[in-house]
Amino acid sequence: MKWKPDYDSAASEYAKAAVAFKNAKQLEQAKEAYLQEAEAHTNNRSAFEQAGMMLKDMQRLPEAVQYIEKASMMYVENGTPDTAAMALDRAGKLIEPLDLAKAVHLYQQAAGVFENEERLRQAVELIGKASRLLVRQQKFDEAAASLQKEKNMYKEIENYPTCFKKTIAQVLVHLHRGDYVAAEKCVRESYSIPGFSGSEDCVAMEQLLQGYDEQDEEQVSRVCSSPLLKYMDNDYAKLAISLKVPGGGKKKPTAAAASGDSGVSAAAAAPEEEEDEYAGGLC
Predict the structure, then answer these.
(1) CA 249 remoteness from chain centre
(2) Where residue 184 falls among pLDDT bands split at 50, 70, 90?
């Protein structure tokens, strides 16, 4: 004679059914059972995430991400932001092979949750993931802004060596945008970071900018193929390898070439002198 719905008990039974369906490899039914559990007990945030995992196993990734996003919103509303951020991070990893733009959005959302909790170390790692994916999509304007945010955070937590690496990444991105002024500004601003001035990162960027500005293809190539840039994260290493100087570049003449040219000039001049000498003798 109990006329009031018992949602807690219903949710418990749906959860049992979901596990049974999952064990029986009936993933569609397991997903539906998890959704029924979530509807019966809306405070059970994990039910939506579990439904998302079932959809992942069924290779229905966009739907899976939708449910995980819904779960993350409920985690935030119910005071567990860390769980929300981790769920968004998982969703980003799921969708990354299929939709880079969506993955960027999820990583940025997750970073925002951590940032609100003043957990900058976790936040900056996620922003770093977003920056690399933006570079991979050649969205260089967005990548430049994302890298600046990364660099500011690393500076705030006093991880200065990583700031140096982010400066290199910034320079490469700005040069691919064709914005030499912005690239130079990044290096100039980094002089205020303890230890940057005179470091190998600083020297390399000064040489890169000089070579780029002077259209010296050889110098740019030498810096970009150095271990310092070659062993960066793969997306940035590719930027270094593919960087071209404006106007096609030029190569400085080698010493041998220069002496060869002077030799040719001297040889060309010699007959004239000899001819003059004989001409004088005939007179």
Answers:
(1) 28
(2) very high
